[in-house]
C-alpha cells in the first residue's frame, strides 16, 4: 500500500463520520512535502473555508498520531471545484451528461486521451460519447484510467449552481 492509500484509509472513516467524502489524496515532493487532501460534503452542499479548516484540524490530529509522513510537510485541504477530478467509479455515473477529459495508462482503441460526454457506467467500464452527435462511443475500463476530470462548460456551471 502506498502513502496516499495509507493516508486515505487513516482519514477516511473520521471524515466520513464528520459528513465529508475524500475525493483525492496527493503527496507531492520529497524535500518540501505537500499533502493535498480534496474533500466534498456528503450532502453535496458547497464547501466553505470553515469546512476546510474543520477538515484540516481533523486530518492534522489523525496524522500526528499515525505519522505516515516522516518529517515536516504542508497540509492543503480543498474542495474539488467545478471542473473537478473524477477519481471514483461512481463519479462517472454521478456526472453523466457532462463533458470530461479522460487519460488512460495504456492505449484503448489506439489512444490514451479521450474527451467526450459521460454516458455513465456499465459495470466497471466508463461510457463516453466522443462526438457532438453521439455517434462515436467508447467504453473505458475504470482500472485503466490514469486521470480524469470534468471540463468547465456553461452547462456544468449551471448544473452545479456555480460552486464545486
Structure description:
- The chain folds into 2 domains: 3-78, RimP-like superfamily, N-terminal (GMP Synthetase, Chain A, domain 3, 2-Layer Sandwich), CATH 3.30.300.70; 89-160, Ribosome maturation factor RimP, C-terminal domain (SH3 type barrels).
- The chain is an alpha+beta fold and 164 residues long.
- The two termini are 30 Å apart.
- It contains 4 helices and 8 strands.
- The longest helix is centred in the middle third of the chain and has 18 residues, at 49-66.
- Helix 1 (3-17) crosses helix 2 (49-66).
- The strands form 2 sheets. Strands 7-6-5-4-8 form a 5-stranded antiparallel beta sheet. The protein has a 3-stranded mixed beta sheet with strand order 1-2-3, with helices on one face.
- 28% of the residues lie in helices and 38% in strands.
Summary, kept brief:
The chain has 164 residues and is α+β, with helices and mostly antiparallel strands. It folds into two domains: 3-78, RimP-like superfamily, N-terminal (GMP Synthetase, Chain A, domain 3, 2-Layer Sandwich); 89-160, SH3 type barrels, CATH 2.30.30.180. The chain has helices at 3-17, 49-66, 89-94, 154-160, and strands at residues 20-28, 33-41, 73-78, 99-108, 111-122, 125-129, 137-141, 145-150.
